[in-house]
Structure formats: structure tokens, C-alpha cells
Amino acid sequence: MTPPSPDIGESLCQALREQVGKLGLSIGDEPVWAAASFEMERDPYSQQESVIAVWRGGQRFGKATFFPDGRVFAEYQVLLPHPAKAGSYVDAVQVWGRAPVWRGDAVIAEYPA
Description:
It is a single chain. This protein has one domain. The chain is α+β, with helices and mostly antiparallel strands. About 15% of the residues lie in helices and about 45% in strands.
């Protein structure tokens, strides 16, 4: 198993932080590429293997899937109150695409009644 290059990993981490920043929030320097652990995952249908980067053990959990064709999908917990939507919080941010062109969005949830 070969982890993705540090350049791609750092770019992905920066893209996740930027998605949080678009909301006017900050998660500091999280996620940190050097703190990721790696594992392989085989798609049961295609039998292709993807590299999975996982951040766990800190304040937040995150996961990035690096598909064999170069695509990436990543999600990282934010768990902070939404700055503009009362009664809501930012559960996570997601980033997808191929380095260095990332797209992304936030996952917004409502607090339980």
C-alpha cells in the first residue's frame, strides 16, 4: 500500500480547512496530514483497491478515500454551532475531486428539539 503523496495530502487538508473557513469558522490546523493513518479497502463490486486515510483519536474524526482513478472524497467533522443559522450546527465538511482542483460543501444539521 502506497499512501498518497504528501503534496496531495496537504492540499486536501487545506481544502477541508477552507470549507470550514467559508462559513466563518475555524478548526485550527486540523486535519494534519502527518497524523493520518492509512488502510486499504477493496470495492466488493469492482474489486479495485482504494487507499483510505483516517484521522481519529483527536477532537474530530475524518476520512478520505483515494480511488484508483485519482478521484478523492473526504469528510471531516466540524461540530461547531452554525454562525448564521440559529438552532443549527456544522456537522462536517466534505471535499471531492482531483488535486489540485477541489470542490466542497458543508453538512449542516439541526440541534435536536
